[in-house]
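Lab notebook, design round three. We kept the backbone fixed and only want residue identities now. Task for the bench partner: fill in a sequence for the structure below.
Input structure tokens:
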């Protein structure tokens, strides 16, 4: 299964419009993947060449509602269907003051991690984590909000991929899951390492609220997915999120452009009351309950926050370090 993720919207503070992250799920079996690739190429080739940008790419924001409806019918709805994990957030519901509180809690944990590494004589790691904290401090509102929703989208898409592969009886594809994310999101290698560390914490929290729907019989009889990713009775997804997750250019990857077009449909439908036919067509292929989960970060009193070492992912020292040194 290939999971391609893209986002749309300004994510500007105080915006009352919904902003979206979308993951599209494409079957990876060679014949099915080739069919979808050909369908997309034929659909894109049918569009006017005047819509192409300097990279030869057709951005979905240039398309008419009718052209996006055609996309929905020919790409999402046609065999093999493309499943969708859609997430939304309204910046106005998540004020900067609330975002800063979540950032402050994360920074407390990172600072304690730095102190812990120094006390153990691991000064190189302590320096890296200090740099990690400085990077987190400098993120602006838009960057922080995008990073948060991207992490939630990655986690939700994995749960949906496992669940749908079971119900669709193609769980043999699970060991080959790959993530493709628009390259514009994280550009510098060092920042990629820091982002992975934030993702690790998000995935841990998400797994407690929305665990992977693994079958009991897999644990009894074995399964290739567990053989690859379960270590000592626990899921270890380091390989998936380090080696099977790539930031790629959209003009070279039709999977990203597929997610981009879905995003445009959602943005127009919910914010402009447009793309009604296109939305109705693709909604049938939303994963799980066919709803769009909208995130609102719950506000809290930072002065009453009490640091708990047992809940700090950056305090725990293990042989399996996520950050690259």
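Proposed sequence:
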């Amino acid at each position: 299964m290939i999971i391609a993720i893209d986002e749309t919207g300004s994510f500007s503070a105080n915006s009352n419009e919904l902003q979206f992250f979308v993951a599209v799920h494409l079957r990876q079996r060679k014949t099915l993947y080739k069919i979808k690739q050909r369908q997309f190429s034929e659909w894109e080739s049918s569009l006017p060449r005047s819509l192409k940008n300097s990279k030869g790419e057709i951005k979905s924001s240039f398309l008419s509602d009718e052209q996006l409806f055609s996309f929905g019918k020919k790409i999402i709805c046609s065999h093999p269907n493309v499943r969708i994990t859609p997430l939304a957030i309204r910046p106005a519901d998540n004020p900067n003051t609330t975002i800063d509180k979540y950032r402050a809690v994360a920074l407390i944990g990172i600072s304690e991690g730095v102190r812990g590494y120094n006390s153990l004589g691991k000064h190189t790691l302590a320096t890296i984590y200090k740099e990690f904290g400085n990077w987190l401090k400098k993120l602006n509102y838009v960057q922080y909000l995008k990073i948060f929703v991207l992490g939630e989208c990655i986690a939700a898409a994995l749960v949906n991929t496992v669940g749908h592969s079971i119900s669709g009886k193609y769980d043999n594809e699970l060991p080959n899951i790959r993530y493709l994310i628009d390259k514009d999101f994280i550009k510098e290698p060092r920042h990629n390492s820091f982002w992975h560390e934030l993702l690790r914490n998000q995935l841990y929290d998400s797994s407690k609220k929305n665990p992977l729907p693994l079958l009991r019989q897999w644990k009894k009889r074995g399964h290739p997915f567990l053989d690859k990713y379960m270590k000592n009775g626990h899921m270890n997804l380091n390989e998936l999120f380090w080696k099977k997750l790539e930031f790629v250019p959209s003009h070279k990857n039709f999977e990203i452009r597929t997610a981009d077009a879905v995003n445009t449909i959602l943005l127009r439908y919910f914010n402009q009351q447009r793309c009604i036919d296109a939305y109705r067509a693709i909604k049938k292929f939303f994963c799980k309950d066919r709803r769009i989960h909208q995130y609102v970060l719950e506000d809290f009193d930072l002065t009453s926050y009490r640091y708990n070492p047992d809940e700090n992912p950056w305090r725990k020292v293990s042989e399996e370090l996520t950050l690259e040194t």
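Keep this in mind before ordering anything: Confidence is low (pLDDT under 50) at residues 317-325.
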